[in-house]
Amino acid sequence: MKPLATAFCIVVVGLLLMLVMKVGAIEAPVKVPTRAAIETDIDASISRVNGWLRQHWSDENLEPAERADDLTVYRRLSLALHGTIPSLEEITAFQSDSSNDRIDRWLMKLLDDPRFSDYFSDRLARVLTGTEEGQFVIFRRDRLRAWLSDQLQADVPWQQMTTELIAGDGLWTSRPATNFITAASIDDEGIDVNVLAGRTARAFLGQRIDCAQCHDHPFDSWTQSDFEGLAAYFAQARVTAGGVTDRLQEEDEETKKVSAIEYRIVDPGADEGRVVPTKVPFHEEWMPDTGSRRQQLAAWVTHPENRRFERAIANRMWGLMFGRAWSDPVDDIAHPQDDTEPEDLLDVLGQEFRSNGGRLKFLIRLIAQSDVFRMKSDVSWADADLYDRMDETWAVYPLVRLRPEQMIGAMFQAGHTRTVNHNSNMFVRFTKFFNENDFLKEYGDATDDELLQQSGTIPQALLRMNGQFTREFTQTGAFAAAGQILQFSGEDKVVVQNCFLACLTRLPAEEEREFFVAQLRQRKTESEATVETAEETEEELRSRAQIIQDLYWMLFNSPGFSWNR
Amino acid sequence: MQNTAQQGIDRRRALGVIAASGLSFALPAMSAKAASRRSNERPKSLITLWMNGGMSQLETWDPHPGSDSGGETQSIKTSQPGLAISDFLPQMAEHMHGVTLIRSLTSLEGDHARGAAYVKTGYRLEPTLVYPALGAIAAHQLPDPKVEIPQHVSLGGDDGFPRGGYLGNEWDAFRVFEPGRSVTNLKANVSDSRLGKRTAGLDFLAKQFSSSRPTAAKNTLHEDTVERALKMMSSEQLKAFELDSVPKEVLSAYGDSRFGRGCLVARRLVEVGVRSIEVSLNGFDTHVNNHDGQKTQADILDPAFATLLTELREHDLLESTIVLCISEFGRTQRVNAAGGRDHWPNWFSCVAAGGGFREGLVIGETPAALAPPNSKQKPKPSDPIKIPELYATIMHAMGIDWNQEIITPIGRPIRFADADPVPRLLTDKLAAGITS
């Protein structure tokens, strides 16, 4: 075998082994924590958040929507934290828990599940590095995701993670946070400091200053000089064989002259570049005197008095939990003109988050236990104007379209009665991996801003109606959810009920149950008319199988499936 | 609210609508007489032949044989006096008197993803705003209510397909991965009778959902999208995607390739009234063995492009269709150690035909001599044309206000094209109509 072919084989086998090891890792099932195991110090924080919300609705002269049932909230939590809906297996276990605080304890269970850290690490990686492939070798998205997942699982404070991302040194493999820096690397040109300045402002301060790269921000107080000054903090970062590091001096390749590294910008028409000093747009007094430029910037960004830092992460987490940010777009939060401006919800969330250790799981719980997350998205009246006002002021749970990865996650789970997780058999997990990739390719993955509100498209509707995924997941074979529901549910009304639970995580309304049970009975009658015995014949079974396939198809294509509600 | 609930999803109604519409663009191709009657009336369409990976200008439209940069490629005379192109394109050589050739197109991006984003939209990639592709703008600005199938189509493309950007993802190109072979997801997996039962049940569920959510459910456009998808599934116009009835000799004239079939489908889609179609040909990223790699692709491009122009002319559709052959960038003057050419955004070539572009026009000259290594002065072509200028020109030719500002979702007003049209690329009549 030629050396190249041998090397290729080794790489392929290695990759397969890595995948198998990753896929094959069995972990202990996550248990539902007892009440005693849950920290209760969050209760005061939740009261403050809800107090602000209630005052907000009172000021708007609005009565918020009623409280949603636990199953609905469970579905929202599962979609937000795991990117999928609960399995029939999980729903059955949840329903058998009759305690009053079950939803709060199951929230903790969902956060402890490795599916949470895996799923959320992907969300954060997109925020930090976008969706571009980046430079081969020096950008390792897989390492960054794994690192983020570990940090989330260990509940490392966000301030600490931010510092490591902005100021970390080392190899992109052994110090994966440095991928934040290497992701901005351009072939033959080194690190693009403008990309890093823009991402830092968006990810950690919730402010879009990218346009200030070329001109002053048209609506905000950011100037071009602010942008350049921020970019200068990354100007000494270099990608070397030893990894990311900061250099104070550099030797010119041609002249061999050693000089201090400065950030230079060559303006159009100018021969020489001008030196741009480091500069932050506000509160220079937060900037420490020591440390590398990146360390200084990290300290300034995470400074305890920097409201923008905690408001940014509060808005981001709110957005990921609801699918819609409190302040939309998620990374373009109004810039406080001065620090005495009255507090809004983001300040309340941010302060509770920071004063409780800056841990993301705490912030997620705070949002998931707020009144808004527990409200219904539907009402019992038909005043469209009132509904719109409630929607604008978060007095009703917002309808938000499932993101592409949630859509395939939900379809895949609905096609299995058992929970698809780290403990599923290897075949199921392989299938999920490849299904997800294929689906995202056809459905269209989200862009960098995955919280951008978009309506569904015709090709997406066609994929849901006629695509291979719908075909596969509505099968009624022995290993498919629809087949198992049909085989083991018994009575027609239980069959319909289980289909609704598996696909929509809710029980059918009475009229829905009657509608679909009637279809099942009608088909039975039709079949009986064509056969001479009353026994269930093969033909009749197929007919019932078709009805369940059709019901699954209807549920997959219904708005209640495609929308978080 | 009640209207939404009453709208419902009714396939029979959709079929009724289709029957009532009269299908003025019914296939097979309209007669030459009918076409001539409509030629001046019909809004223009755009076919983009996307040479994915970076087509080498030196092996196609702008050869420099015998020079340091020329490599092994030879040139041949064309139907346009004084113009020679690569000998890899003998069929296209016969069409050069009827097209505009730009040899001095310039880009700002030498990376595939960034380059493709720039050349497809006319704007550089930005982290906070996705710009619409030229084809999406055309479909958005020139809608045709008679067309039931997507107005913006990508044939044979993969990643990096043209997007709707800030206009909305409903303007994303409808993707057909294997043109002429199968149109994914457009056929129901069940009989009409079962589909009827399914849609009735879906209608019931949708009404349940929307009845308790005033306006919000309507704003999801869920029912509307499903209804339009069902209408599309039963449209006669879908036949434009199928090549079963096309004579073998026509198929073989386009070349027996995915790209050739894509060009043929593109012509059929234009007949139906589809506004913009992109046909992709992959494989131009020849960092190794450039000469043979580019020849392989040119062998596929040549018969397909030439036959497409011939057929459009024969069907009297060339006046109302712009055909643009373009790539994300060109390839270096210098041949590297592996016999390849690398990325070169400094200048590259494109061909624009039909739709009001001048015939037999050649724009720009490029240096044949190699630039000195490590030179800080980058060599330049004469008479450079920027991508936004080309797109403003195409928009003007199609009757789109290139200067129009759209308030984007992030509140920034953005012009459709970030430059003014170039009058000398267009016929006198069209050029006279340019006002900035």
Total strands of chain B: 15
Arithmetic mean pLDDT of chain A: 87
Q: Please, what is the CATH homologous superfamily of chain B?
A: Alkaline Phosphatase, subunit A
How many strands, what sense, and barrel or not for the largest sheet of chain B?
9 strands, mixed
Which oligomerization state do the chains in this entry correspond to? Answer: heterodimer
Unreliable stretches of chain A (pLDDT < 50, length at least 5) are 20-26, 531-535
Q: Cα distance, first to last residue of chain A?
A: 58 Å
In DSSP terms (H or I, runs of 4 or more residues), the helix count of chain A works out at 25
Placed side by side, the strands forming the largest sheet of chain A appear as: 1-2
Please give the CATH class of chain B.
Alpha Beta
Shape of chain A: globular
What's the CATH topology name of chain B?
Alkaline Phosphatase, subunit A
Low-confidence stretches of chain B: 1-39
Averaged pLDDT of chain B: 87
Terminal Cα span of chain B: 44 Å
Tell me the β content of chain B. 5-15%
Radius of gyration of chain B: 23 Å
- Give the SSE order of chain B as H and E letters: HHHEEEHEHHEEHHHHHEHEEEEEEHEEH
**Beta-strand level of the residues of chain A, as a percent range?**
under 5%
